[in-house]
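Forwarding these from the shared drive since the link keeps breaking.
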Amino acid sequence: MNARRGTLLVLSLIVIVTAAAGIPWYIASEDAQRPELEAHPTTLQLPPGVTLESLERVEVHEVIDGDTIQISKDGDLSPVRYYGIDTPERGERCYREALDRNEHLLTDDIYLLPDARDNDGNRPLRYIFLEDGSSLDATLVAEGFAYAWRRDGRYRDQIVALEEEAKAAGRGCLWAPEGQ
């Protein structure tokens, strides 16, 4: 009788441990099924007479979401919204993927380029350029993690074209065929 209880206890513990180990796997299984990333670092031509070094250089303090960061300049923190793009909001499909890709692409220091519309509510709007000269805004759209902003902006037509290309190629979370 005691051997039987011991065996049942051991089997019960095995089931409990297996279930406990399987719960995080089950929760993360949707993330584990993300489509392969097709990297498309994209550059945008800076305006005439403007160089990367002449742009405002700031330090990234925190990534807020797929198209907003907190920057640090001279010890002050402020949010910056990316110009020319829109990424899914929290709770929407592809939110996590856009946030993850934004975090992955960002470097410690970035360069900011303003355009005609300076603010989005309380946040300044800026095109984001990385140290290698690539455009973070354009790259997120080209890789299928952001939508192009169609109303205005210096690079509107180029970014819209990048979105159409990404859509046609089925790139990224936004445009990959369902189930991939």
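-- next protein --
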Amino acid sequence: MATLDPLKQNPVSVPAWANWARNGCFWFLVAILAWAPFPLGSNREWSWSLLPLLVAGCWLLWTITGWATPESQWNNLKRLSVPLVLAGLTLLWATIQGLPIVPPGWVHPVWTDTANLLHRAVPQTISLNPWKTLGDVTKLLTYIAVAWIAFCLTQNADRAGKLFNAIIAIGAAYALYAFVLSLFGTEQYLLFYSPPGQASYLSGPFVLHNSFATFEGLAVIAALARLVELAHGEILASKGIRRWASTTLQFTFGSGRAVVIATILTVSALIASASRAGCFSTLCALIAMVIPFAFLLKRGVGTKWILIGIGAVLSLLIILVWISGDTLTSRYEDLIDAGNADEIRLALWAAAERMVADTPFLGLGLGTFQDAYPMYATRVLPYILDKAHGDYLEFAAGLGLPAALAWWSAILWAAIQMGRGIFSRRRDRIYPLVGFGATILVAVHSSVDFSLQIPAVAVIYAAILGIGLAQSYSTQKSSY
């Protein structure tokens, strides 16, 4: 079978077994994305341990495919060489933090004190908890693997569309599932553990409503983008109000009904989660996605349809907030008089800032906030404080500023590339646009929470990122 090289558009002979492996890899990836949220966001030891094994199996299938097209794989590596090198340096440093191979001056003093107390040698590492650090390295490797597989698979526009639609469907399915759980007065936690959960708001398969909000927010921006894209070719606004109304109804109850239902479900679930940060982050993402169109307006790219799309999106959001947003509204009103949870967050941030100031270059070890907090806390709190509720501070405290900056630079590079793709592509702009918006969403939410530390959220974002990058280059369709 002859296919096209994604870069050079030259015929590439691909054996049948490689195509079988590629298709198997694709549907395996879809299955992973569908499964990951169900076991409490894959954020328990057993469910997290299963996730990298599943991704490794998917990677094995992709490796088989890569053997058939080595030149394409090399070209893919060259395309993403900058973010891969930056991310690789970050992971290399995190691995060094967890191994007893560093100079004595780099070892955290706690290990010297421990050795003196026990009167025997103990591993001398930078990390306060080397096992946790190396475990988090595995997590980051898993997310990179998902993004890489999605990037390689979705350079073909047809597969990009299928994976994109699958993500929307997964988000809509879990939104419906969340409402079903709420209807029966139960929660996902009870399916796996006997003690009662403590969910106060709609959280679906996740433990925390904020994580669910980020997950659904990613689905929301994808569904809304697809809705506007499909409506562009179906709804006629230039032939009078009656024609507009009739084509709108035909689209809503005809060819567009699936994406309309998905949009309503995901937006409703996002609002019902009552996550202030989740809703605000999604709104920031939607605004960031609209801004590029302001520049495209100057180039005459569908002015009327852009305005209609924006109006439709805003109208839908207003209606849904009016119907189901009472709890969310009350939570925003609570900001006037910050409650206990917000005070705790400020205490965590203050402790994280002291961690960064204490070890700005070496860090305390990736993922060791829980171990470090008692040494830097100024308040005793009756909780297990394993997250800083601010990924930037926690990441910098764990890795040190140089390695953290390298990781953030890799994501920034990807965002810039997708931003360029919005303008360089003549078709399929939706994918880099949503990838760009998803990056804004998680970037804003990460400033006040830790949703990206929930594996199910991270793999969905990684898949969207992979699609957005793959379709950000101005290339012809590839059949491979």
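The chain has 20 helices and two strands. Confidence is low (pLDDT under 50) at residues 1-11, 335-339.

- D.
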